[in-house]
Specification:
The chain is of the alpha/beta class. About 40% of the residues lie in helices and about 20% in strands. A ten-stranded mixed sheet has the order 1-5-4-3-2-6-9-10-11-13, sandwiched between helices.
Length: about 375
């Protein structure tokens, strides 16, 4: 049996509202190039993939003086949580905690701040490891019946300030409705439009690439994550639906503007061209388990195949251009080649009423900022 290395704490920590204790002292000057932080919300049916898959892959490489791999681990079969630093062939338990609710944004905030104080670096990556379902939820903590969502992500990012790369090892998270919350708080965003296989990221290759070239910038590494993912799943059988993409967060404001203009044009022509919109909608690439999540670029392609007004043609082409500028890397398996890196939420009729409609309008800033929620009201009105 592999042994865990424990560091004696020497102090007892008092936890308020089950949150991680934030270090009070000022962080030391960065001594590393990167700190890779993994928020392991394994308090659910994905638990086994951490000890059986992700952790062993990370241990193949381990931390160095230039790169730290640190995780907050909450598993379903154990009481309490551990903060661990992953090393070659083993891991060190840095701190232990009572049971934490990883669906509480303050726990995530405190985790990141703690890691930054212990392992300062020039650049940081925050990886959300768990289930995902776009704007609806991610990081489901079964023990506490709680989860993160877009308002909680907004809280996390606003409080933390800036993270170089935010990544989701979780299904359906490469969605503009989600990524909009990270504008101004991240350099690049990495996620999958589609479901992520239980095997998750190829952490051994991801870790080795960072350790081998710790001076690389966020854009380079975000692209490398997508490349590694593609190579990993291309070599395996049965993963024809897999996708991963990297988005330049600084391009999202332009995409937001062009999408807002496009939504206005769609609304202005709705009475006359609704049938054309619906025809394009039927032909658009949708995600298999969440067929109300559409590839944004592919919808624009399908819409341009319809007979629509010149003003809407121009607005649609502008959205395509903005997507191309925002998505810096995109890999798709052979059944998902119509995907271009970003989804958006086009609710089906039965998902645009009651709680679903109320939640989208109240929780998803993108839907309000672009007028998309108003368009869906008119479309289904």
């Amino acid at each position: 049996m592999k042994k865990k290395t424990f560091i004696p704490l020497g102090l007892f920590f008092v936890f308020l509202t089950q949150a991680l204790l934030v270090a009070g002292a000022s962080a030391a000057p960065p001594s590393a190039q990167w700190t890779f932080m993994i928020y392991v919300c394994g308090d659910n049916n994905l638990e086994k993939y951490w000890p059986d898959q992700s952790l062993p892959m990370l241990e193949k490489v381990g931390s160095t003086a230039d790169v730290h791999f640190v995780a907050l681990v909450d598993l379903h079969s154990t009481i309490g949580c551990e903060l661990v630093r992953i090393e070659k062939g083993t891991y060190t338990v840095i701190e232990t905690y009572p049971e934490l609710n990883l669906g509480d944004p303050q726990v995530c905030i405190n985790f990141v701040n703690k890691v930054k104080s212990l392992y300062p670096a020039n650049k940081y990556l925050l990886d959300f490891w768990n289930h995902g379902n776009g704007w609806d939820y991610f990081c489901y903590d079964e023990g506490n019946n709680d989860w993160l969502d877009t308002p909680k992500l907004r809280n996390i990012m606003d409080t933390l300030g800036f993270i170089d790369i935010v990544a989701w090892d979780a299904c359906d998270m490469a969605q503009i409705d989600v990524y909009y919350e990270c504008v101004g708080h991240a350099s690049h965003l990495v996620g999958s439009e589609e479901s992520v296989p239980g095997l998750g990221y190829p952490y051994d290759t991801d870790a080795q690439d960072l350790v081998s070239n710790p001076s690389q910038d966020a854009r380079t590494y975000a692209i490398e994550l997508v490349t590694n993912y593609g190579e990993y799943y291309t070599a395996l059988k049965g993963y024809d639906y897999a996708t991963l993409s990297a988005v330049d967060a600084s391009q999202i404001p332009t995409l937001t503007t062009t999408f807002t203009d496009w939504t206005s044009a769609m609304s202005a022509n709705l009475a006359t061209y609704k049938a054309k919109y619906t025809s394009a909608l039927r032909g658009t690439q949708k995600m298999w388990a969440t067929n109300y999540y559409l590839d944004m670029y592919n919808y624009m392609v399908k819409l341009l195949q319809e007979s629509i007004p010149a003003t809407l043609v121009t607005a649609t082409e502008n959205v395509k251009t903005a997507i191309n500028n925002a998505v810096v890397a995109n890999w798709t398996a052979k059944k998902m080649t119509a995907c271009h890196g970003l989804t958006f939420y086009w609710a089906k009729a039965n998902y645009w009423k009651g709680t679903w409609r109320t939640r989208y309008i109240s929780e998803v800033t993108w839907g309000q900022a672009t007028g998309w929620a108003n368009f869906l009201d008119a479309y289904y009105g």
